[in-house]
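Researcher: I've been going back and forth with a colleague about how tRNA (guanine(27)-N(2))-dimethyltransferase might be arranged in three dimensions. Neither of us has a model we trust, so I'd like an independent prediction. The organism is Vireo altiloquus, in case that matters for your notes. Sequence below.
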Amino acid sequence: LKSNNLDVKIPKSELEAEEKEVEEERPRESDSNILDVSSGYPRDKHISIQRYLADLEKLADLREDQKKPCPLCPEEKFKACYSHKLHRHLQNLHWKVSVEFEGYRMCICHLSCRPVKPNLVADQTLAKMGAHYHCIICSATIVRRTDMIGHINRHVNKGETESRFITVRAPKSSYEVVKESATDVQVLPNHSTPQKTDSYFNPKMKLNRQLIFCALAVLAGERKPIECLDAFGATGIMGLQWAKHLRSSVKVTINDCNENSVTMIKENCHLNKMKVKLNIKEEDSDETVGDGEENSDTIEVTKMDANVIMHLRSFDFIHLDPFGTSVNYLDSAFRNVRNLGIVSLTSTDISSLYAKAQHVALRHYGCNIVRTEYYKELAARTVIAAVTRAAARCNKGIEVLLAVALEHFVLVVVRVLRGPTPADDSAKKVRYLIHCQWCEERVFQKEGNMVEENPYQQLPCDCHGNMPGKTAVLLGPLWSGALFNTGFLRRMLLEAVQYGLDEAQPLLKTLVCEAECTTLKHFSIHSPGDENKQEECGVYIKTSNMSAESYLVHGKRKSEEVLRGTAKRQRAEHSAEHPPFYYNIHRHSIKGMNMPKLNKFLNYLSEAGYRVSRTHFDPMGVRTNAPLVQFKTVLMKYSTPTYVGAQAEGPVHLPGEIHVGEEVPAAAEIKVEEPELEDDKSGVAAAVFTQSYPTGCAAD
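Model: Here is an independent structure prediction for tRNA (guanine(27)-N(2))-dimethyltransferase. You can compare it with whatever you and your colleague have in mind.
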């Protein structure tokens, strides 16, 4: 061998040993490179990270007539052997003890990958080369399998799921095409349970999307064209439905901060034959649609943070649907939203809103809540209170158009009213709620600056005086105003019928009845007084037939005189608002008695002179302005005993001394007016008619 014109003699045995080592390393490097190209990995991927066991066996180059070493073990630990024995070794000692992540297996590795202290002797060095795992995200080496699982979970919790090895998007052949409301979208196979870096598409939120579409369609009928924003596009399904059905009435902007989601939104726009107007600096200019080419089939796609785009631009309609709570985006949403515009937000952090994680609700919403029978309405009022405070900080008031709380989400739709006066009026409706933990009676705290010594005396019940200790708690601050706008809901129902949204129609009918506090049998799309009602700020206002003020406002700015007149008329109709909260008929059932059917019970309460309706919050809930005492009185009156001898005897007749407005006496003091049961000493006739439980111990 010659180097630098010098002849250097190297023993032949050393040259043969070096050539042998090079030949052994070449097949491993070539196989690794081939696997990297096929699986989308760069060339620095460690060989212990594979998708399939067959890929791991390819590294060993199994042949029946030759002995091969294990690719993940040194020769000192595992000597070369034939294919059948090596296959068992790879399957049992490497593959079965691997850690799985996103379809890849991080197999256990016995090679000398971990650094060893240099002052160790050769035998000690071999002993220190123990088994370890290579992290697919940060390429760290970790010894124990449980530590490796915890290490991966910490990456996932931080949102660090994009590996420096996994940089290629999934092939288009792996996409699924889902059709909803005549709109096609491409979704990933794991769209229902994605990682944080993937686009999320939830089929269970179809009802939510239909309600938001109806609200936007109503706003588009007031003024056009309107600029609307879907701040968290994901797959772009919601914005595509807006543009496809409302056409020239809306100018749709779909935003997302994830690059993969933005790419998928553009592909879904082309799939639905929509033109894309890009607002992304790094994109090529050939895909951008100019202002002159913009038409009704054009959707603007942006890639930026939701707070940034809402600070930079003004919109008439904004929808927020982040992962979890929406409170981090409320200040930006109300900063530039136009007057009489609409802001809708979907909150999916139901664990905190439904009082399962009360400390999280206190941290996010600044609200103290407990688990009650009306916890869903409590969640809706908690979100509206946060929305009210955010709007008031921007000198804007709100008018609640819709509040829905179902199993998976809480949807709130509000109209924005500019000015300090609407802001003050809205802020005054945020109050504390006094809740009795024993009988679950509730009442909003009275307005005023005077602090009462015992605010729990405002409750209609006597639990605070009859029971020892503290029986009531202070919840809130909560929204104390109306949750629905009847006129807006009726127009939403008409839009749902027009566009054939079958899932939204039954819910909207229930919401209209709940807003008017009437039963479904009295429901009609056009109320009898519609000919004398005009619309202003989204509210139907009673006027005379030939009044000078009978005109339809299409969302433009009005003078201060018209706004003051509108506020006066709204205050005059304030008495017609639906009563807050509801009672669960099962929660207040009478032990030993059969309750009447729910629809019959609604008729009984209505005949007693109370406003009554069902509620979408609870299928067995009753919204009424009757106090809890009278609610229990009517329920007791029309309940029948469960034992056979008195099933056909009709309703139970209460003693004559019980009148409306008085408490029902204890069950032991009530005597059933049936002479054949007076001599019954078996204890059946002395059944307990009422039984109350503290919060958290509901009656079965």
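Researcher: What would you highlight for our discussion?
Model: I'd start with this: The mean pLDDT is 76. After that, consider the following. The CA atoms of residues 600 and 638 lie 9 Å apart.
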